[in-house]
Amino acid sequence: VSAYQKKGIWHAIAKEVRTLGDCGRRSTHCHKRWEDLRHWARKTAEAQLGMASQRGRGARRTLTPLMARILAVAYPELDGRLRASQQPQ
């Protein structure tokens, strides 16, 4: 993940965190949010690809646009597989 890519996502997360009513100004909070979103983006993608168990909290989630951006940056190979699987055959 390049610093530039991460910075763009930081801004999106900071904005989202603020709209959720959390304090987005604390970078530690933002970092925690990044870790959480990165984790959920991966879990969601794995569930959608049928790699992860369909039970549990990640199974019913849909990828938000922000999560999709994070997935593309943090897990490009997983993102590629997900995109390929969503293309109409």
Automatic annotation (TrEMBL):
Domain (Myb/SANT-like DNA-binding): residue spans on this chain: 5-44
InterPro entries: Myb_DNA-bind_5 (IPR028002)
Superkingdom of origin: Eukaryota
Record protein name field: Myb/SANT-like DNA-binding domain-containing protein
